[in-house]
């Protein structure tokens, strides 16, 4: 294969890729390779290597890419949106936009699995949970879900687990639940064998009526929208009592802004509340990303999906935040996991939490009252003109009755610069929000031909028993930062407690923490992308959909697949979409008995969870001693289950960081048995430009745009997990009821709430591919492989490298085996991870895929100086371990076991066998770059035993 030399690539390529030409030569020399081409030929099996260069033209420059994006943005038409349906205009506080959304200290951080260096994000997420818990009235809230629709689907399975109703009981859904939520939940229900009944539940207040609404069947769960999709507010207390009497649980999909004025779901009996926090300062963005939410009553907290932030203590007893209970649940419980949610929407949850901190309870209530007043003014103007509405009690949404005139009214509104929603030929709905102006009200009134509305005061117009009277957001954090100076300093204080890519290398295996270039990020906040409603008419969204089409085609070119859907808004959702496509393909071919999914023991934990959610049964394939899939065990499993084999899920290169030369044989064996091959795209950064899963045997892959294609991790999200398929699976990609362009009519249904998922961050990946071009992308992959092999070579004599290919080479990551050292010294991977903090590093991936190991991935963006700094830190730590082995220090009082060392710990009484300088400034640490952990090692077990998941009272802090 030929590769374009570096000087033929754009200047941007040299800025994205860390090592210089001279560095590359030195690195190749160390690992014993004469050239980059020789390294690739040795590392990657010849059977899978691409035979032609990746033919993607690069843009001339970064300004040229911005100009192209500007041209696409200009092809969008941004009208005032009154479509509603869970997506609303909102004012992002400028201090939040600049200091969180546009700040790499927040958007380049990793998931807070290392809590000692994630205290800022974790505090922000605890604020988020407090907002959700206070407003819904339910005591435990999670750190964030993906969107409202998937949150409803997660509530369905939580209710199924929590209800004692018969196995054939149904989910009862009110007809005014958001239509996209009903559709996504139906997509999720089919493979799980759950029946859903959609009915008008207004007035249902006893068991008999509940059973009648469910067509005479038992009910395990009930879902209502509060307020409804039509805008109506109902007292659901009677329904909740009836459901509980029947052994069912109740979920309210609730609008948090409305809950500042409405009684909380908990007050009328809801067991679970779900929804979106989009209108808390997060732009609509043509569908996302936005943070979903879930809160639950006592007794359900330990079955919640996703992430839960809790309060624990460090070794000194100081309060400290951490992920509780569900941390990497999929890796622990695999096919028994309660959900496949792995990526959350942390960055957006942080924004929503800070919107609430900025405004406080009084500010949120004021915004809600002003919004309601606008709806009242429209309601009164419509009624004065004889236009009736279906909604007696409402918050921000009206459904107007316009017999036979819905299309004409919608068209007239567009002519006046406003989008409203056509419900059917006789009804239109319209929603107001905090951004709606007097001019907007005049415009929509003109479309109806009614008098100009005049907003009055915003006191609720609904009955007193539905008006909120209890206090919320009473914690001082929601009352302390209402000046911009105070807020700016609060956000800075939190970011200072975190470690992100703006500080240094995050060498995480399987997560590809690479440069998120500023130019790639620039267009995300442009109003032409940020202010589009996901259900806006197609002729208003030409530019963003053109960008989506470009990216889909480029991803096909890169992967060798035929079709791509960008709808899945996380890698886990891409996995599910791919497996649903496989399931639907077998069903269409009459192979309904194919329900076995083979998964290697080394696979990502989400693989098994996703397979179960797709209705498949997981059978594990053993790992060979060399780290590869055990081919003999695979053959035996295929022999046992061949007629029932639906698919195999395999990560390539393997999760063990090796290019397995058996991959083509594996694909052939599965295909011969009638199964499909799912290639997990988590490690695609080792393949781009060099090999294509769609041509070496894969039928479907999900791709991680937040790994390989430069969308930032955002502290644990957003993510985008497109699904790519060969032609025979294309008819079964996701689609969406509100967009013909989003997928095939024969598709499996929607995977996400919005037709194109988290569309507002797709320009990041579009810009990355356009800036790099095929030659630049290929060079990036080669450099990632080079950097991993350089680290493996430098550290091999100090830490065994667990797996390697035939030529002693690894792929884009390597696994350092500490198990022998742990047995000899007692020093654990946790000790090494925490000591790395003192050296100024985020730890590699711990104990995955093999317990007692560290998985290191340097990426192509780290320069040789930073890579060497990491290697030297690891070598120095190996020396510290040797001191324990030699008996010079007891492990219990070693510098390793007491790491990380905080600044305050150095000022207290010192009785350790090492000096303060050795603790704080170990070999190679530049005092001017020193990162100080804000807390010492955190007690995880304490936090799980004493689950505190909302802001503790100030008294609790004083007591500690």
TrEMBL record:
Q: Where is the Glycine dehydrogenase C-terminal domain?
A: 780-901
Q: What is this protein called?
A: Glycine dehydrogenase (decarboxylating)
Catalyzes what?
Answer: N(6)-[(R)-lipoyl]-L-lysyl-[glycine-cleavage complex H protein] + glycine + H(+) = N(6)-[(R)-S(8)-aminomethyldihydrolipoyl]-L-lysyl-[glycine-cleavage complex H protein] + CO2
Q: Which gene encodes it?
A: gcvP
Q: What does this protein do?
A: The glycine cleavage system catalyzes the degradation of glycine. The P protein binds the alpha-amino group of glycine through its pyridoxal phosphate cofactor; CO(2) is released and the remaining methylamine moiety is then transferred to the lipoamide cofactor of the H protein.
Q: Belongs to which family?
A: Belongs to the GcvP family.
Q: Any stretches that span the bilayer, and where are they?
A: none
Annotated Glycine cleavage system P-protein N-terminal domain residues: 15-448, 478-734
GO terms (molecular function) for this protein are:
glycine binding; glycine dehydrogenase (decarboxylating) activity; pyridoxal phosphate binding
Originating species: Luteipulveratus mongoliensis
Listed EC numbers: 1.4.4.2
